[in-house]
Amino acid sequence: MKRIACLAALVTIGSTAGCVERRFTVYSDPPGALVYVNGNYLGMTPVDGYITYYGKQQFTLIKEGYETLDVVQSYPPPWYEWPGIDFLTENIWPFKLRDVRKFSYTMRPLQSIPPDDVRSRAEALRARGQNIGVPLPPRPLAPAATLPPPSAPAEGTLPSPRPLPPPPAGVISPGSSGTTP
């Protein structure tokens, strides 16, 4: 009789064992921004998602008329998800635990830059670049011991081209009529 009671108690505890629900909700100001989590589309704010693992995730919020917002969000595990304790809370604890994180982000309106400002900045950068001077020649690499030094052609002449190897048999070379004699 004791065995049946112990078995019934174990089955009851096992069937009522709790679990941990890990979720997050993303809000934005203004609402309706598209949300990407680690490059995967999630939805429009306010939107819910599940936390697969604790640590960091990248959120990207996009809304027309607003600057795109990239955020690396960190969320440490709660005390009941620490190694060792997590086995008890997920397998033995008879109640469900919920870990719901709420993230709220404010997006900045897109600012248009007048074309005259862009042009003046470009001209200033160009003037700065022209004052830099001539760049130094690249440093030579360590000389290869097996290659002979290249011979310099006489000034004003081009080096003679190397002769091409003959084409393999059956290949029509350029300039031929394509017929065999």
Task: Kindly describe this structure.
The chain is an alpha+beta fold. Helix content is 20%, strand content 27%. It has a domain at 29-106. It has helices at residues 2-15, 85-91, 115-130, and strands at 20-29, 34-37, 40-44, 47-50, 55-62, 69-75, 97-106. The chain has a four-stranded antiparallel sheet with strand order 3-2-5-6, with no helix packed on it. Strand 5 and strand 6 form a beta hairpin. The protein is extended.
- Class computed from helices, strands and strand pairing: alpha+beta
Q: What is Rg? A: 35 Å
E-strand count = 7
Going across the biggest sheet, name each strand in turn: 3-2-5-6
Short structural description:
This protein is 20% helix and 27% strand.
